[in-house]
Every structure is written in structure tokens, then in C-alpha cells.
Amino acid sequence: MKKNILVFAPHPDDETLGCGGTMAKKTSEGCEVIVVVLTDGRHAFSKVLGVNFDPTPDELRQIRKEETIRAAETLGIPRKNLFFLDFEDGSLEKHEKEAEERILDVIKKYPPVEVYFPYIKDYHSDHQKTNQIVKRCLQKSGLTPMKFQYSIVQKYARISPFLERLADLFRNRTVDIDISEFADLKEKAVREFKSQISIFSKKQGRPIIEYARTEKFLTKKEKFYVGKGN
Predict the structure, then answer these.
(1) pLDDT of residue 13
(2) Exposed, middle or buried: residue 127 (CB in 10 Å: 0-12, 13-18, 19+)?
(3) Backbone dihedral region of 177: left (phi > 0), alpha (psi from -120 to 50 degrees) or beta?
(4) CA 92, 39, 151, 76: dihedral to nearest 10 degrees?
(5) Can you tell me the distance from the alpha carbon of 122 to that of 92, in angstroms, rounded to the nearest whole number?
(6) Is 201 exposed, middle or buried (0-12, 13-18, 19+ CB in 10 A)?
(7) Orientation of helix 125-141 relative to helix 96-109, angle to 10°
(8) Main-chain phi, psi angles of 24, to 5 degrees
(9) pLDDT range class, residue 216, cuts 50, 70, 90
(10) Contacts of 229 (CB under 8 A, 6+ apart)
């Protein structure tokens, strides 16, 4: 029987940025990797950059879902292993009960040996809520899988990357997973998220604003926070 690995992402692309190399590695080892994306990511442009058309939030929602499917396939994860809960981006705190019910169903259907989900100290409220919901569901399930938290952007990083690294030194609750064998594959998967690297005009068929950098996620190791305090 294959070992189940559950990965929870607040938004489409968090799973690939945070643990894409590890997902590819686990798949190559014969594990069944299941990815659950909680929100639809529709407001990535409208709330952060003030862009409400070309693409519209509804168009962006579909674009990001398609990007996630292609990225997962690149990492060896089939479409049937992807679950999109489709809560509106930024509104997860309003749907905690429903999200909890649906996640608990997934956990019961695919009892995991390992679970990957966002770090509690990431700055985005959807990341924090995903962390809390997943922890509650695991507790209710009675299962005790190994828990790994990945970080996308912490509050310290928004001030200074140095402060983020300094905080990690004092926490001393991290593990690194060597993904060197899968680093190129992860980079290829990350590149599928064209909408999150630039604002891509559907009408013009090309990127019109380059605004995101992905270098910090394209390393030979992926870092995770572990331990009871996390």
C-alpha cells in the first residue's frame, strides 16, 4: 500500500513554491501525494496591485487553477490527486467550519503519514487560517502524521530577509530536505505559474508587468518548521 502524503495550500502555487521539490521526491519514492488548494487566488492582482481587468478576478481564478494542474503534472502528481476547495481568496476566515469539514473528509479518505501546510507565522491571513484549520482537523482525526510547515512570506521577511533568517536561528525547529535531484523539475513547475511571475495580458498574449521573483524558492534544499511549538 502506498504511503499518503497530504499537502495543503492556501492559494494556487503555494504548494509548488513551498514544497514542490519534496512533492516530486515523495512521488518518485512511490508515495501518493495529494494536494488540497483552499482558496481560488482570484484577488492576487485586484487587492495587491489594483488590477481588475485583463485578467479579471474570475479569469485569474481559472488561470491559476490551470497553472496548478500543469505544475502538479510536471512534479508527477496526476489531476485526480488535486482538490480545489475554491473558497474566495482572502475570505478563508469566514469559511472555517466548511473548510474544516471538507479537509477532515480528505484526511479520513487518505490517512497521511506526512502532512505539509503553511507556517503559522506567514503574514497572509489565509496562510495562518490554513495552518490552524489543518491542525484542528488532524487533532479531530486522531491521526499523528509527521507535520512539516513551509513558509512563503513571513512578517519579518516583509521588513528584511535578514530578520527572517535571524529569527530562524533562535527558533531552532527547522529541518532541511535535500531536493537537489529534483531542483530542475521544481523550477520547471514554478515557471508554469506565469500569472504569479508577471501580469499576463490575455488580450495581448504576453506579460505586461514583471513583478515577482522566485529565486529564493529555487534552491537545492527546502526548509520546514517542525516540533510541537509549530
Answers:
(1) 94
(2) buried
(3) beta
(4) 150
(5) 15
(6) middle
(7) 50
(8) -65, -40
(9) confident
(10) 171, 173
Q: Check if CATH label 3.40.50.10320 holds for domain 4-225.
A: yes
Q: Model confidence over 154-196: pLDDT tens digits?
A: 765 444 455 555 555 545 589 999 999 999 999 999 999 988 7
What was the pLDDT predicted at 172?
A: 56
Cell numbers for 113, please give them: 503519514
56 pLDDT tier (thresholds 50, 70, 90): confident
Average pLDDT, the chain: 86
Q: Where are the domains of the chain?
A: 4-225
Please give the span between the terminal C-alpha atoms of the chain, in angstroms, as a whole number. Answer: 30
Q: What is the largest CA-CA distance in the chain?
A: 52
